[in-house]
């Protein structure tokens, strides 16, 4: 199974789903990670505040941060290769990378005439 690595910006906890004002996109992403793990994904997450050496020791992530700064985060690597920067992967992205069936709601969007980045 391909390993998916997520390099998160500095957060107060490992998922960012803590504190008084929780960002909904972090809640959604945490649910997507749980879904992917239940479907066999091997996902590793690194938090800049808690594991800065992981960022410094990975050449792809270090180079991206040197060029683009913190705005490049989060960074997603799939099999050690850069897959995304600046946003979290969707459940459909995760499904594609692990070879799982995309969720029904994502399949419907992709098959509609306005899905997949094209419009009628």
Structure report:
The chain is an alpha+beta fold and about 120 residues long. It contains five helices and four strands; from the N terminus they run βαβααββαα. The chain has helices at about 25-40, 50-55, 60-70, 90-100, 105-110, and strands at about 5-10, 40-45, 75-80, 80-85. A four-stranded mixed β-sheet has the order 2-1-3-4.
Topology:
Blueprint: E1 3-8, H1 24-38, E2 42-47, H2 52-57, H3 59-68, E3 75-78, E4 81-85, H4 91-98, H5 104-111
Parallel strand pairs: 1-2
Antiparallel strand pairs: 1-3, 3-4
Structural class: alpha+beta
CATH superfamily: Glutaredoxin
Strand content: 15-25%
Provide the number of structural domains.
Answer: 1
Shape, principal axes of CA atoms: globular
Sheet bearing the most strands, described? 4 strands, mixed
Question: Helix fraction?
Answer: 25-40%
Count the strands? Answer: 4
In DSSP terms (H or I, runs of 4 or more residues), the helix count works out at 5
Task: Give me the side-by-side strand order of the main sheet.
Answer: 2-1-3-4
* CATH class type: Alpha Beta
CATH topology: Glutaredoxin
What ranges have pLDDT less than 50 throughout 5 or more consecutive residues? 107-112, 115-120
- The CATH architecture designation is 3-Layer(aba) Sandwich
List keywords for this structure.
globular; 120 residues; 39% helix; 4-stranded mixed β-sheet; alpha+beta; Glutaredoxin; disordered C terminus
What does this entry show, briefly?
It is built from five helices and four strands. It is of the alpha+beta class.
């Amino acid at each position: 199974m391909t390993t998916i690595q997520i390099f998160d910006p500095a957060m107060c906890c490992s998922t960012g789903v803590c504190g008084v004002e929780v960002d909904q996109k972090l809640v959604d992403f945490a649910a997507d990670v749980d879904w992917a793990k239940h479907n066999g994904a091997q996902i590793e997450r690194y938090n800049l505040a808690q594991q800065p050496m992981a960022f410094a020791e990975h050449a792809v992530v270090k180079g991206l941060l040197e060029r683009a700064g913190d705005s490049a985060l989060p960074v997603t690597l799939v099999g050690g290769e850069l897959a995304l920067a600046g946003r979290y992967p969707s459940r459909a992205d995760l499904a594609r990378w692990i070879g799982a069936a995309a969720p029904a709601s994502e399949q419907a969007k992709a098959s509609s005439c306005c899905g997949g980045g094209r419009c009628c």
